[in-house]
Write a structure and sequence with these properties.
Strand content of chain A: 5-15%
Radius of gyration of chain B: 24 Å
Oligomer: heterodimer
Low-confidence stretches of chain B: 193-203
Largest sheet of chain B: none
Strand order of the largest sheet of chain A: 1-2
CATH architecture of chain A: Orthogonal Bundle
Shape of chain A: elongated
Distance between the termini of chain B: 63 Å
Number of helices of chain B: 7
Number of strands of chain A: 2
CATH superfamily of chain A: Winged helix-like DNA-binding domain superfamily/Winged helix DNA-binding domain
Largest sheet of chain A: 2 strands, antiparallel
CATH class of chain A: Mainly Alpha
Largest interface: A-B, 16 and 21 residues
Mean pLDDT of chain A: 84
Radius of gyration of chain A: 17 Å
Structural class of chain A: mainly alpha
Mean pLDDT of chain B: 77
Number of strands of chain B: 0
Order of helices and strands of chain A: HHHEEH
Number of domains of chain B: 2
CATH topology of chain A: Arc Repressor Mutant, subunit A
Shape of chain B: elongated
Amino acid sequence: MPGADSPDPRSPIEPLASLGRYAGPATLILSSLAQGAKHGYALTKDIETFAQVRLAPGTLYEALGRLEGQGLIEALESDDRRRPYQLTATGASVLRAHLGAQRRVADIGLRRLSRSWGTT
Amino acid sequence: MKAPEELLARRAERLLRCYPKSWRSRYADEFTELLIADLEERPSSWRRSGNVAWSGFVARLTAAGLTGHIVEPSDQVRASLASLGTSLGVFLVFAIAIWAQLTVGWQWSEPGAVATSGAMILMSLTMLVLFVVAVLAAVPIGFRVIRSLCRHERELLRPTLLFLAGASLLVVGGRHFANGWPGTGGHPWALRELVPGGVAAFA
C-alpha cells in the first residue's frame, strides 16, 4: 500500500512525456504562454527570466512546431513578421495536469529531504 | 559598407538555409526575426549556430519522413525518394562491402565444406530477395517520378538528379574498383597497401 509520501499510482498519464527530449522546453513554453500570447523572442526572454534557462532558437521552434502539431498551442494572425502563439484550452489542461504531477514529485522529494537531511 | 541590420539579416538568412523548404515556407519570417534579435544580443555564439544546424537537420529528416512523423501528402513522393535513396545507399555501402569481403575470400579457393557452399548459396539468395524487394519499392516511386518529369514538373527534379548522381557514382566505382573497393581487402588496393592488410582483410 502506498505510504503518505508515495506517488499516487492513479496519476494521469503525462501527455507531454510523448514529446521526449522536448518535454522540458515544452513545459517552459506552455508555462510562459499561460500568462498570455507571445512571439518567439518574447518567449525566450520570459523563460530566461522565470526559469534562468535560455532556449536556443532551434530548440524553441522545434518545440513550438510539436506543440502546435499536438494542438496545445496555436499561432495567431499578425501584421508583424513576428507571429505570436497562444495556449489552447487543451494545452491549458495538459499543462495543469503536467505541473500537478511535477508538484507531487517535488513535494515528495522535499518531504523526504527534510525528514532525512533536516531543514537548512 | 552594409548597415548592421542588413548584415544581421543576411546572417539569419544563412542560418535559415539549414531548414527544408517546407519548414521555411511556414516559419521563415518569424524565425528570421527571432534570429536577428538573438544575433543583436549575442553577435557570436557557436552554441546557437550548432543548435540551428542540428534543428535544421532534424527538420530535414522529418520532412523526408525519417523521424516517424506523418508527412504531408504533397511531400510524400519526395520523402519516399529520399528514404529509398538513403536506404539503398546504406545497404549498398555496408551490405555489399561485407558480401564482397566474403566473396573475395571464397574466389581463391573451392568451397571446402558443404556448409561453405550452403552459406554462399544462402547469401546469394538473400541478395536476390533484397534486390527484388528494392525493385518492388522503387517501381511506384519511379513511375511517379517519370510521370512528373514528363509533365515538366520541377518539384522532383533535384532529388532525382541527386539520386542518379549517387547511383552513377556507385556504378562507376564498381566498374573501376571491381572487387577491390577500399576496405574490402580485395585485389588490387590491398596489395598496393593503400589499405592496411590487417584492417582490410576480413579474415
